Protein: SDR family oxidoreductase
Organism: Hymenobacter volaticus
Amino acid sequence: MTDNQKYALITGATSGIGYELAKLFAQDHYNLVLVARNEQELENKATEFRQQYGIEVVPIARDLFQREAPFQVYEQVQGLGIQIDALVNDAGQGQYGEFVETDIYRELDIIQLNIGAYVVLTKCFLKEMVARGDGKILQVSSIGGELPGPLQAVYHGTKAFVTSFTEAIREETKDKGVTITALLPGVTDTDFFNKADMNQSKLVAEGSKADPAEVAKDGYEALLAGKDKIISGLKNKAMVYSSNLMPDDMVAANMHEQGKPVDESK
């Protein structure tokens, strides 16, 4: 055990933005509870963090596609007697393609992961934070929640939920000593696009991708500063701002064009 007893729980912590956020918490001497599906990857990252930062790391292997999994995560943390001072909901996936053709069961899994797990973990840990008048929550959403997403209809819909949900509970708890921040990245260089099977999308194939370390830094600094919401990257800020000035159908058409496979869009 280290002297420091602060703990951060991070989902999707073995790669991408979640991994980079875990590094930032570790640098600030937080102990970590890392949640991901792959047990071997979790163990590897746990060992890395222990050796590099001299902190305690608790790996929890759970498949957050499963409805009961976030409850099991909470129960395991409770069973260990750990107080979570910072919760990071980061795990999320998407699926590329026209809604009439995509796999509904994969989409239901995505809704469970991107919405269900966020809601359960937030409720469980927020209750504790409010009761003691202290705590931080970072919800990794997406600029996709601000824009309609043809060819990623369900993913964009889930992120609209996350941002709206975060804004609502922030208002409810604003006088309770708890900080709740939404991080909205754009296209970021992570494994997301492989899992979503959308590397052929024009947006991904031809566009620039943000560095997940930079995105994580934006989110972490916003959380520590007590900000409500942070859109990571100037280009993404401009994109969201300009879309707010355009009619919704024009935004959707524009996003549809950007999202088309490279060979179709020529």
